Amino acid sequence: MEVAVRGGGVIGLSVALAAARAGYSVSVSDAGSPHAGSRVAGGMLAPVTEAWPGEEAVTAQGVEALAMWPGFAASIGVPLFTAGTLAVGTQPGDLADLRHAGEVLTSREVRALEPSLGPAVRGGVHAPGDLAVDNRLLLSALWKACVELGVQSDVDGRVEVIAAGAWSGELHPALRGVIRPVKGEILRLAHRPGALPPPKHTIRALVSGRPVYLVPRAGGLVVGATQYEAGFDTDVSVAGVRDLLRDAETVLPGIAEYALAEASVGFRAGSPDNVPVVRWLEPGVIAATGHHRNGLLLAPHTARLVVGLLEGGSW
Fold it and tell me: CB within 10 Å: which end of the chain, N or C, has fewer?
């Protein structure tokens, strides 16, 4: 069977790789937008500390996916950050909101794990099993692995897999009005000589109820992310950058000495209930989209589901 994957982000390439490994003839086509969610993602693989109320189904999928990630990453030669996550808060209400993720530690206990945290941090939760990945290294590694298995570009197939993220709603009537873009702004900070080194852990924080995350990268940090219902608005707003830097500096004051290397907009693929849409839409067409904030985390899990659909028949 020939399978044509529409979308070359992390979901599309993971599906293509899994299908090729299962023996299918696979091609990938992609519009190459610089605003694709996979390209500007933070790279956190953290289903419990990322969990939001009402998204229990997605959290359960994420826990399954996290268990798949070490083997998945090793199979394509991409390294993982394994120090875990520190989820911290600056107000008593922030700490109450973190209790779902585990035992709340005191400010002294979280500073023992990450000494560069600012004085506003009152405590937090340590999730040592969380992982993180450099999203751009991941995209390159996935494409290399696909090419090595003979995956081609822009070839029609008997079965089409729609995995175009936020743009998926434009590719099939059943997804129109179901999949929508959710705008997010994200920053990349570069370490400068004399500045404190990046943290060892991924830092997720609530600052007076506002979420912000800081994910270590080689030579710096990724800081994110805003969230707007603004359609395909590609502008980086002054307010978005201001809010992210203000809250990130509250949590980790040392970043004031870093360089602002990049400010980007990406589009998450939202669904009505934020649960991914992975199913047959009609004979010959499968959807693998709607992953919202969890595209990277759920990639190997979604790829396995799609291969199961392919092996189960055309409808």
Answer: C
Spatial distance between the Cα atoms of 158 and 283, rounded to a whole number of angstroms: 10
Closest CA to 72 of 293, 298, 305, 275: 298
Amino acid at 122: R
pLDDT in tens, 133-183: 999 999 999 999 999 999 999 888 899 999 999 999 999 999 999 999 999
pLDDT, tens digit, 9 for 90 and up, residues 94-124: 999 999 889 999 999 999 999 999 999 999 9
Does the global pTM surpass 0.85? Answer: yes
Cα gap 13→29, rounded to integer Å: 10
Q: How far is CA 220 from CA 35, 174, 193, 197, 310, in A?
A: 21, 42, 11, 8, 41
pLDDT single digits (tens) 10-38: 999 999 999 999 999 999 999 989 999 99
Residues contacting residue 223 through CB under 8 Å, at least 6 positions apart: 186, 187, 188, 189, 212, 213, 214, 215, 244, 245, 248, 255
Beta strands in 77-164 (DSSP E): 85-89, 105-106, 123-127, 131-132, 152-153, 159-162
CB contact at 8 A, 272 and 174: no
- For 209: left if phi > 0, alpha if psi spans -120 to 50, otherwise beta; the answer is left
Residue 276 CA, distance from chain mean position: 13
The Cα-based distances of 237 to 182, 218, 234, 250 in angstroms read 15, 26, 9, 20
For residue 100 the two structure tokens come to 């779902």
